Amino acid sequence: MIRGRKVFSKVIEPQKTDLKYTPAIVFSFFDPSAGQYKTITKNPMPIFVEAGQQEMPIQLTLPGDTAPSAKQHAQILTQDVLPIMTNLASLRNQNTSVCKSPLILACLSVPSVAVIASLLITRHKEKLQSDVGYARNRRAHTIAKKRLAIAQSALSQNTPAEFYSALSRALADYLADKCNISPTDASDEKIGYVLKQRGVEDELAGELSRCLTNFDYRRFSGDGGTKDEMDRSLKLAEQFITRLEKQLS
Q1: 169 and 69 inside one domain
Q2: pTM for this one?
Q3: pLDDT digits (tens, 9 = 90+) for 17-28
Q4: 27 lies in a domain?
Q5: Per-residue pLDDT at 92
Q6: In-domain check, residue 143
Q7: Number of structural domains, the chain?
């Protein structure tokens, strides 16, 4: 026959000082020998309740823990069923769904965003390699800024020929890349027709053509003008590229 023993521990917290006995302890169990359930009762036990200075909630401690006062702590003797907590003030509302947290939602969306970004970058690189016109259009503004930087350097060194040559090339190469044409087709004689086909305003096309003519004159005539005039020419070229970027994009 298999025998065993089970010990139940229960914390009793007296609420009044006039208590003289503990409640009777009732336990029901199944008796295999009799083949039926039985109930046994432990008679009330006498106790003495000492009044405390102030009402304090019971705190649970593990065996071996040091407690400042035995009146305020109930020691857990086993790792079994704990006493029922009657102080609900320390409990938090568990009804909030973790999946609704903005931080969790943001973390869950990171893989999807990364996959989409990777696909877009891959398609962009493939198009740059396969579509020459698309590649030239995308890189036109970056290359033009580098050409203008060369012109800025020539301006600092006060070399008009190199300065106006860099400005002319910056504008001509920019137009050629944006329109996917040869740089020779972006000259001041043909630029009006090319820009009109791309839907650029006639006024802007006319101003740009006159600007390119002036740059070529300054470059080949040796009349580079003053440094202030060169500075204004550089700013004018930058403005043309900015305006064209809006209309040709």
Answers
A1: no
A2: 0.48
A3: 888 888 888 888
A4: yes
A5: 62
A6: yes
A7: 2
